[in-house]
Amino acid sequence: MPFFQTPSNSLRSLTKRLAGAVAVSALCLTAATPASAATNPTGPDVSRWQHGAPLSWAAVKASGHSFAFVKATEGASYTNPYFVSDWAGTRNAGLLRGAYHFARPSVGSAVSQARRFIAVSGKAQAPGDLPPVLDLEQSGGLTPTQLSTWARQFLEETRRLTGRTPILYTYPYFWRTAMASSTAFTGYPLWIASYTSASRPAMPAWSRWTFWQYSSTSTVPGIAGQADMNRYNGSLADLRKLANIAAPASTPAPKVTAKLSAASIKRGRAVTLRGSVTPVVAGQTVYRQGYYSGAWHTWASTKVTKSGTYKFTIKPTVKAVNKYRVHLPASDKRKAASSPTLTLTVR
What we know:
Elements: H1 11-17, H2 22-26, E1 42-46, H3 57-62, E2 67-74, E3 78-79, H4 83-93, E4 96-102, H5 110-121, E5 133-135, H6 144-162, E6 167-170, H7 172-178, E7 190-193, E8 211-219, E9 226-232, H8 236-242, E10 255-256, E11 259-260, E12 264-265, E13 271-278, E14 285-292, E15 295-303, E16 309-314, E17 320-328, E18 337-338, E19 342-346
Parallel strand pairs: 1-2, 2-4, 4-5, 5-6, 6-7, 7-8, 12-19
Antiparallel strand pairs: 1-9, 2-3, 8-9, 10-13, 11-13, 13-16, 14-15, 14-17, 17-18, 17-19
């Protein structure tokens, strides 16, 4: 969502007309690649302007990006004609996705714009849905006090309708001038637009950004021409949580018990090693291991019964103090586990 984007205009065309002008330099319109957060998840944001050629969301995903934002609505009446197809395409490609509304405070109430936005984009409740976004980069002639009231009404109505805390997209120069550097919105996650060569962006009021739009001139496989590029300030696991995807429940390690029928026997005599494995998975293989030469070595194996029990028979032939354990190796569905070490004295 480039600064000053409208259905008939974009930042890139504006930049061409104002090349070299003071207004452009004041907005820091220099593409940057933030190297300091190179491992954080990245993703583009799109509107109708990226549809000069068909988009391939599968290619966007395959190129290593994790998320995308799609413009849904603008002002009181505009709907992005590609929103529905892009919304479905990002989901089908396995991208986390968010929808945004481009605010026009001069053409309708905040509440009505918020209601229309959610009616088009949905309530952001599905797995993979990022919180809804208010793109605030035009004042509509309102004073900072009036614009703050407008923005607060939009955000509060969006939260009421969705149950999600909306994200606020804006940029430093606008916040300083149109919002008088207000500190009243720091409870909302910040999506900062800042095309700076600095390693991290700086924003009035907020101490932390959630998303950073660091370029409007990036090349993205699957998107023709130049594209806006963004970075998430956190791990992929954090981003998935923000997108309604809970972390998989940790699987506790199985428990393996073991007991010898005797702690001391004469050589040539037999001793029984019995135990159990929980949770029970009938037919899984457990291994009887012995410790020598500084490592555990497998001597025998058996299958766990339907009741979760197992049994080994041991018949030592050499006088020694032997150490045993029963080991359950890891699999795709479970962690590895071993019984406590058992000691058998062979006389």
